[in-house]
Amino acid sequence: MINATAPDKRQYGSGSGLLPHMGLPMWYLPDWRGGLLGADAQSGTALWDYSQVFDSVEGNTTFYGLPDASRLSNWWQQVPDDFRFCFKLPRDITHVGDPVAAIQSRAGKEFEDFLRAIADLGGHKLGVLMVQLPERVAVTSEDMLWRLFDAVLSMTEHCLGSRWSGSLAVECRHRSFFMKDEAETDFLRGLADRKMDRVIFDSRGLQMDRTKTEPVLDAQRKKPNMPVHAVATGRHPVVRFIGHSDWQQNIQGLQQWHRKLTQWQQEGRQPFVFWHTVGNQDVPGFHRWIMETFWQREVVWPGENASGQTLELW
Prior knowledge:
By secondary structure, the protein is α/β, with parallel strands linked by helices. It has a single domain, classed as TIM Barrel. It has helices at about 45-50, 60-65, 70-80, 90-95, 100-105, 105-120, 140-160, 180-195, 205, 215-220, 250-265, 285-295; strands spanning about 20-25, 55-60, 85, 130, 165-170, 195-200, 240, 270-275. The strands form 2 sheets. Strands 1-8-7-6-5-4 form a 6-stranded parallel beta sheet. Helix 7 links the parallel strand 4 (about 130) and strand 5 (about 165-170). Helix 3 packs parallel to helix 6 and helix 6 runs parallel beside helix 7 (about 140-160).
């Protein structure tokens, strides 16, 4: 069993108060071995190496299926106390004809069991729960959305109580949520009343990429292409950033986010930001470049040390 303790020299974390929570969309790819991860890292144990560098992860796996208690326990044991998992609600709830009915049925019961398992392990390691809406759900569905959000918030309060310091955030994928009109204002007000936030997906860099490689073209077809409204309505705004394959082309957008993230922290918020690249094979390097360029921080990877332990940074 891995005895996870918070690394003394991690580049960021909730304890420092200097940087936002940061992470990637997963904690393991084989391409990362010998770099971000130890040379012999495996999917079942790579989270420990990953958590020596990052203090959060975008848990997309729960969108497709919830882990059983044993797998969840394995994840919890590999990370230090200041690590925050950010999970998506299952698509069996969010992407069905009646999400409100789903949260009250078998899918909702399975999600409740998942939350209870988290509570048994220590609810403080749960960060933001993310609700990804399907593209067909427009702002005109807000009455249904409020019922869904209220049901999820009630469930988390019942299962986790004060052990959970995170929040609920929603990712909208229909343009009606981005019109800067009365409907959007009302929606943002409803989020603020519930201490919820938006998940802001910034794909501007990806969408202006003209390299025309098949991976880039495929990502441009599949990734959301919504306006970027950098508005925080709760304590934990979430940013998902996928950039241009030429990293230098992302500088303007990253400068904007560096300023906005700093502003949110000065306001007392604790934002989360998750970095993406096309295919994500090079995303650890992208993150390292961002840290050196915008936060003037050196990033050392566990896989760069033959022993698999993080080196001293300074």
